[in-house]
Amino acid sequence: MNRFVKIIRNLILILFLFFIVCIVTGLRLTPEQAHKMSERGIHYGPSVIIKSFDYGNYQQLLCKYDNWVSCDTVSRFALIFWQPGNQPIGFKNDSSRFFCFSNNYSNDSNYLYGIINNDALIKIEVLTNDGQLLTQQDFYDGLFYFTWVSNVRQSGIEKITGYTSDEMITYNAWDAIPY
Amino acid sequence: MLSHKESKAPCSAFDEFITTVLSQVHFPFDHRKIHDELASHIDDITDELMDEGVSEEEASVAAVQRMGNAEEIGKELNKIHNPVLGWIWIYSSLCLFITAVFAFCLLIVPLTSPFTVKKPINEINPNDILYHISVDKTCHIDTMVLTITDIIYDTDHTLHIFYKTYSSSLLIDSWNFPYLGTLTDEHKTEYYCSELSQTRAFIKYYDCRIRDFPETSTLLTITYDRFNRYYEFNIDLNSDTGQQSTAYGTMSAQRAQRMENSNESIR
Q1: CB contact B83 to A (< 8 Å)
Q2: Class at the top of the CATH hierarchy for domain B120-266
Q3: B22-53: pLDDT as tens digits
Q4: Cβ <8 Å between B174 and A41
Q5: How many C-beta atoms surround the C-beta of residue A7 within 10 A?
Q6: Where exactly are the structural domains of chain B?
């Protein structure tokens, strides 16, 4: 067996073992694969990824599935792998409300996401517990997403307000829908 | 016979020849092999010359001279022992070794678990069993296969529901399945279970324990309805085999349609 053939043999064996390792450990090569695996693992979805937010060592994926809205976190592992993070399950949308939202904490950041049920809403504003005011006007297919870092480790929200051209609708922290 | 491999003459013709040849070969891991091959070659020529009556010392020198230009030979050998291929081979072998060790460490636990881990049902003392029903009913959720295997009622008034799950996909993407569903009896009283699981070679075995379950109950209904996945098992606790029916047989047409739709969307 000449050296070139030995190299080909080595590469084939490495790929095969690499595949085995990925299967057994649940590691995947892309964030989308890790997200899909985490959803299937708990028998949810498959959701449609509306928007992904890349923070280097982790990504948050804003997704829709039937009546549910989710914000899944997937984390980078050993530079080339991605593994499921937390919260692939979303909350069930209550279409009787102007907008629905949920908030959580992951990877040292607070985040809030939700869905707009009334097309008249043009802006969403979040006032956090530590006094930060966050605003979003461009929505992602009817979804909104905020993330913030607080000097308090885990900071919730004081209130969240949706604005139409002539009125405002305010919800409090306890109106968040648990997932 | 003079062995050049063990030659102790540092400035001999052979050493000079071999040093020149090897200086042209840029893949150091092949130097030993080339050295041995050339030495063997020169030994053969030396032996031939000695057979013809030439003295050992003269034969050695002549043999080296017969080999030809050391630099040219070295350049030719460098083409054969390509350093680029050589280093790729070394690194790929190293990677293969590391990956093989890693894979072995990961696989050794699941592959040996059938010999080291007991199924939860084997933890039950046969003397504590009041009744035992063999169910053996299967349903699929995504790629996970769920089988309810046995129902055991023990002297502590605990109903044990034994079930197992495994992934039908090559990609193992089913995690633990601790929530079996809503558990009710014939009076629609809801029960909660604490679950114990063991994994044996990629199959997970569970014991879902309902404490203080009425001994006289005749029916156990297990209903799962989450995220557009549905199943239902009705298990007759008076029968030796459960005589169970599943959601596929008992649900409404509207629900069957929903399930069919969800299965299609999952696919």
Answers
A1: no
A2: mainly beta
A3: 999 999 999 999 999 999 999 999 999 999 98
A4: yes
A5: 18
A6: 12-81, 120-266
